[in-house]
Design goal:
The chain is globular and about 60 Å long. The protein contains 14 helices and no strands. By secondary structure, the protein is an all-alpha fold. Residues about 1-10 have low confidence and may be disordered.
């Protein structure tokens, strides 16, 4: 009789850790759903991470980078503690100081999150492909929704735009540009890695994605995320030799596309000319 588990141990191993990988991959979507969902996602991920790691989490040896990050969290905690003690003994009790102290303690959950990600990756439990897939899907969908809202006046679920601001699924919160920026590089890298053996498809899909993401940020009305998106692509271009051609063509296509759109829309033209003027003065 053939032992299925021993016949394909890698597949079984991936299935054993599928849940925590999906929870980790869900982060791009949770960022779109608000701080409550993010915190719940972090909590579930940390609990599952501790469950899978068990005693391994106690064997960690912090490298220099992790020590610096821990020092940052420690400084925040000490500063809030000193502030609370000062107000208790000299200025009296204050809710704001107690609130800051409690937040500094809860802030350590992100260091725990970092440690768990580090260890899960070290022991080959965490697969980043799910995170890349979710980042690609969510950023592209938000971008398409915003482009649709720009041309039609309302997005795919009926939310209307406000002037030159198209917030898409985010409604009254004008954060769509920042959201797309946050996960855009992961979306681009996903296509490059997914079509790594298909050069022609990889080139076309990446160019298309860069333009879609750039258009989504542009039509969101958030000016700084667009600048940072272009800068991010430029930095990625200078840091990787294997995809220089794709990124170069992507940057050229994006700049040409943005130039055509901005020059043909007076409202966006005035916005970015004003932004350029202020940046030049600074």
């Amino acid at each position: 009789m053939i032992n299925v588990k021993s016949a394909n141990p890698e597949k079984v191993k991936d299935n054993d850790y599928l849940l925590i990988n999906l929870i980790f991959g869900f982060f791009p979507i949770s960022f779109a759903m608000g701080s409550l969902i993010i915190n719940v996602n972090v909590l579930i991920f940390c609990i599952l991470g501790i469950y899978y790691l068990k005693s391994k989490i106690l064997t960690i040896k912090l490298d220099f980078t992790l020590k610096i990050i821990f020092l940052f969290f420690l400084v925040v905690f000490i500063a809030s503690s000193v502030s609370l003690i000062k107000f208790l003994y000299f200025d009296g009790y204050g809710d704001n100081n107690l609130s800051r102290f409690l937040k500094s303690i809860l802030f350590f959950r992100y260091f725990l999150f970092l440690i768990i990600v580090f260890l899960l990756n070290k022991f080959d439990i965490l697969k980043f492909k799910y995170f890349f897939i979710f980042a690609f899907i969510s950023s592209i969908l938000v971008s398409i929704d915003i482009i649709f809202q720009y041309f039609v006046g309302y997005n795919t679920i009926g939310l209307k735009n406000v002037g030159t601001r198209n917030s898409g699924f985010f409604g009254d919160e004008h954060i769509a540009g920042g959201y797309i920026l946050r996960f855009s590089i992961f979306a681009i890298l996903f296509l490059i890695l997914f079509f790594k053996d298909k050069n022609y498809i990889k080139l076309l899909s990446t160019l298309f994605a860069i333009c879609i993401l750039g258009a989504g940020i542009l039509f969101s009305g958030n000016r700084m995320p667009l600048v940072l998106f272009i800068v991010g692509l430029a930095l990625l271009f200078f840091s990787n030799f294997k995809i220089k051609k794709i990124l170069f063509l992507g940057l050229i296509s994006l700049v040409l596309f943005l130039t055509i759109v901005i020059s043909s829309d007076n409202s966006y033209k005035n916005i970015y000319l004003s932004f350029y003027g202020k940046a030049k003065n600074v």
